[in-house]
Specification:
11 helices, globular, 7-stranded parallel β-sheet, two-stranded parallel ribbon
Amino acid sequence: MYKKSKDNFWRNKRVLITGYEGFLGSHLTRTLLNYGAKICGLDIKTRRKQTILSSKELKRINIIKGSVENFSLVSKIINENKITFVFHLAARSLVNECLTKPVRGFATNIKGTWNVLEAARNNKRIEAVIIASSDKAYGSCRNLPYSEDTPLQGNHPYDVSKSCADLIAYTYYHTFGVPVVITRCGNIYGPGDFNFSRIVPDAIRAALKDKTLVIRSDGKFTRDYVYVDDIANGYVTLAEKMQKLKLFGEAFNFSDEKPISVLDLVKRIYKITDKKPNYKILNQAKYEIRDQYLSSKKVKSVLRWQPQVTLDEGLKKTIKWYKECFQDDKK
């Protein structure tokens, strides 16, 4: 748990979090609840069983079930609840889902973003809009790590949806003055990620349940990995400092700047779980960027943010959480 924000910044602030029950959304929601914010949560799934949010925490949230693709709903929520801060995290976040259903991915990731921004443009109370983008918005690039001025040039559905959403966010700032900032993160991992198509939870589950882990790629793809609490802390810090530091219209990368291959990551997980490595390499990954990692030089300089949790520490915490989670499933 992070220390309380200075001067009770969030106390009674009216905050909308789209995708509040998702992996990052639930951690951000819990953090802001602890800081005293009044939260409206919008999600297409609500009160789901698979969430880190407790029943007590859910009772403290104004929960709205619905989609960011519904402009009238988004606008109504912002206006009627007198929202001042918006964290837009709702998205189709899986590469393969966007490959098989690209129109659905474009609708949520692009239309959903312009709906949030248009609703914010029409409301004078809005102090800040944080758009959760992705490192994949940059597309494939030979010059690594990606910095914030790397061109946005996604080639495939998910990547393109994020490139487009980012450009739309820039438009709403430069044309209409909407107080928006974009975040792009490395691969986020930690407790509460129930999407087992992602490598960290899938590898942990395989190790703990003595199953064979299936690796879609050749295992040599490199990524940077950031613990979820570090990212939630980064979002909160960014929102607190946006106005004072005049950060509107900018983008920030959040990374631990320590890229690692899939195989090396998997071997660490097996080592921490004290299990013998058991995996099968398919080498069948399609339309995925081979090497991708970010520079956090800007966010370290401007926000004084940097990860507090090392990869080994984060994996130990995450593995412990999944152990308890799987034990609860047997009860």
